[in-house]
Write a structure and sequence with these properties.
The chain is α+β, with helices and mostly antiparallel strands. The chain folds into 3 domains: 84 residues, Double Stranded RNA Binding Domain (2-Layer Sandwich), CATH 3.30.160.390; 102 residues, DNA polymerase, domain 1 (Orthogonal Bundle); 174 residues, hpI Integrase, Chain A (Orthogonal Bundle), CATH 1.10.443. Helices cover 44% and strands 10% of the residues. It contains 18 helices and 7 strands. The protein is elongated, with a radius of gyration of 32 Å. Keywords: DNA integration, DNA recombination, DNA-binding.
């Protein structure tokens, strides 16, 4: 080994610019402006590593040698001193590796994969509502299956889907922490799932109105208010879910086609094409009735700002003492299509904008069946507004 302790206190009183070796890989690097830095060079597994120890004279010669000795011993034991120091710094700043901080970092890393960059908050909400209030301050390196089990146990048998989403998101956050180099238990969520056992929760479908009852309910929506008109348009076009319905804009409608942006359609990720909705004569009439309410281009604005609330239509039906909810009109129409028309399966599924079949099948199917759907949309509207419940036949397109 090269000689150590070459530098002297006298030399360090006014060291010239340049690199000065103390031995054993310890160097004092003096800049032209007079500033100086202690640097240690070591070799770990055949790879040279260089790490700054601190500035001189704030870090004196004796302390620099002491630190250098410690890190050299670590390198000799086959451990990377640079990574070890980073780990120690993270441990000293435990709040920086709390679950809340790592969750926020993981969310930022995934935003591009989420619909609308995750602005709706649905990716984060299971964690923000049910996990972070209890575990947010816990260092992610300390998180174990018992912590997770105790946190999700109150939901596991009552709100199973919410608990499942929270567990899934938590697994992603833990993997993100591992990618950052943190010493986490990658199996913690699976172990927690094993501890929680099988959920007793029985999922229930959203209540739907029988298709035979839809015309009477539709007729009861007599007021030209945004709520009544939005609910009518929802019944006529149940394939369009709450968000795009509430955010419908006049510039999305051309002739008898309403073009919904692809990012607003559920189950469609990335750069997906927009979804075309054929509008029946009745749907166009409802849109004309809604135009006097339009503000900032939106057909169904809120009284203050933005658009009508997500729960507005559901609460309206609840006040009517109805079990069914707006989302259930998808089931109403789909059942009517099955029982009262000869619509092919793929056309009927497209009517309610249901993503069906495999990705390969969808890739080869280069049509959205607009013309067939236009016929069915008009027949549904005729039925809803009082038409006869007769079987609808679709003509072949060739």
């Amino acid at each position: 080994m090269r000689a150590k302790n070459r530098l002297t206190a006298g030399f360090l009183k006014s060291p010239p610019a340049g690199k000065h070796c103390d031995g054993g890989g310890l160097w004092l690097v003096v800049r032209e402006d007079g500033g100086a830095q202690w640097v240690l060079r070591v070799t770990v597994h055949g790879r040279r590593r260089e790490m700054g120890l601190g500035g001189y004279p704030a870090l004196g010669l004796a302390e620099a040698r002491k630190q250098a000795s410690r890190w050299r011993d670590m390198a000799a034991a086959g451990r990377d001193p640079v990574k070890e120091r980073q780990a120690e710094e993270r441990a000293a700043r435990r709040e920086d590796i709390s679950l809340a901080i790592i969750t926020a970092d993981a969310f930022e890393a995934r935003k591009a994969e989420l619909k609308g960059d995750g602005t709706a908050g649905r990716w984060l909400s299971p964690l923000a509502l049910h996990v972070l209030p209890k575990l947010g301050k816990v260092p992610v390196t300390d998180l174990d299956q018992r912590d997770i089990r105790d946190t999700l146990a109150p939901l596991w048998h009552t709100k199973a889907e919410t608990a499942r989403k929270a567990l899934n998101r938590l697994a992603i956050v833990i993997r993100h922490a591992a990618a950052l180099g943190l010493d986490v238990d990658l199996q913690a969520t699976e172990k927690a799932k094993a501890l929680l056992g099988r959920s007793r929760h029985v999922p229930q479908s959203i209540p739907a109105m029988a298709w035979a009852d839809v015309p009477a309910f539709y007729a009861s929506l007599e007021e030209p208010s945004p709520t009544h008109l939005a609910l009518r348009l929802s019944i006529l076009n149940p394939g369009v879910r709450s968000k795009p319905l509430r955010h419908i804009r006049l510039d999305q409608i051309e002739d008898d086609v309403w073009t919904v942006p692809g990012e607003d359609m559920k189950g469609r990720k990335g750069k997906t094409p927009p979804f075309r909705v054929p509008l029946s004569t009745e749907a166009l009439r409802i849109i004309e009735l809604a135009k006097p309410h339009a503000r900032n281009g939106f057909l169904f604005p809120n009284r203050n700002k933005g658009v009508i609330n997500d729960m507005t239509l559901s609460r309206f039906m609840e006040r009517r003492r109805l079990e069914a909810r707006p989302h259930g009109f998808r089931t109403s129409m789909r059942t009517w299509l099955s029982e009262m028309t000869d619509a092919p399966h793929e056309v009927a599924e497209m009517m309610i904008a249901h993503v069906s079949d495999s990705a390969v099948v969808r890739a080869y199917r280069r049509t959205d069946f607009l013309e067939q759907r236009r016929v069915l949309a008009q027949r549904w509207a005729d039925y809803v507004t009082g038409g006869a419940a007769r079987v609808v036949k679709l003509e072949s397109e060739g």
